[in-house]
Amino acid sequence: MFDKSLINGQLFINGKWVKKNLYILGEKIADISDEIKDAKEVIDCSGLKVLPGLIDPHVHFELNCGRVTSVDDFYYGSVAAAYGGVTSIVDFLDPTRNAEELEESYYARIKLAEKSLIDYHMHACIREPNGDLEEYVKMTKKLGMKTIKLFTTYSDTHRRTYDEDIIKLLELSKKYDVLILAHIEADDMISIKPEMTYKDLPISRPGYSETIEALKLAKYAKKTGGFLYMVHCSSGETLRQLKEEYSDIIGKNLFIESCPQYFVFNNSFLEGENGKLFTFAPPLRSERERQLLVHNFDTLLTIGTDHCAFNSEDKNWPTLAGFPLGVGGIEYSFSLMYKRFEEKVIDKMSKNVAMIEDFLTKGELKVGKDADIAVFKDIFNYREQKGHGRCDYSIYEGVLGSGEFIHTLVRGEFVLKDRKIIPHKGKEIICGEK
Ligand SMILES: [Zn+2]
Question: Whose CB among 121, 284, 332, 346 lies 3.0–4.6 Å from 429's, allowing a Cys bridge?
Fold first, then answer.
């Protein structure tokens, strides 16, 4: 006797929709079959789509930015995630300079994540390294992670990693099978002048600062054979040029992520009455750049949200310097992207993330995998609604989407059932663990 069955739904398996029934025993998917078998709890999914639980590779819950902290902590962030069909998130440790600091930052932040309803994992994050880089990489692995994020910018706040160390980290990534995540903006092309406001974001952080830095880092990845993952690629021109010059390494040792905001909006939204709400880094780009991003969608390996929500009053800040940059999006990501790219987006939000992170039990509807499942209802002419996180607004309210999640299950247990949250305890995901 199975614990739960999801019957009569369309299941997404190996890139296609198939009408099958799925059976859960304990935390695992125990069977996928045409037959109807006995289960203690039967969930009728007639007319619904049954997806592998989504994995968001890029969130910032409870991020302390000095003057303000992002409003969605690991509890509220995971509530919003559950409404968005997301069953696992990857957040970031505080930036650290050496292996000892990394270990401390891991234990401090992983504790905050215990509030999460869904499963969680962290990226290590390096800044101005001052210790042995090999020790840093070894510590990352020892702590159950395989990704190290670096910034090519933010030298003003001591977060930049310089090229010499980037090259060393790429070399080490090959030796230790880790992945180097890079925030790609050329530091010397970014200028934040005292008189600038949020409206100056596009000139303060121009698209070419991303494109130029991306091409340079791609060259390093090609030379070293190291594993490089570019986070939140915002500019279609960046993608176009990477594809033109580095198609031989894209998907092999160069991986690219983008986020829904860069597909849905262009920088004219910064000019509107609520322009201050459309603020994040990298910023929104021109309509031409947005269209190029859409056109080169296939180049992307993953979609993350960069979820980092601030209340609207936090955005009442007179200057660009000190302005809280970031928006929420985890609840909306699938609905928005599915509307625009249909099935093509599903692997980028599940299987591909599991693959690069070595989340061996996640990412697919397959017998033996964790029963992380998201049940989606297509709704014609759906408009995005007010969210369920703690933020007082969303830039996506009223935007055309494709529908909503009815149920979300993590390791066989409901976290969202008939659109209501069910208490659940998320678990840390360890890379490579079965
Ligand atoms: Zn981010």
Answer: 121
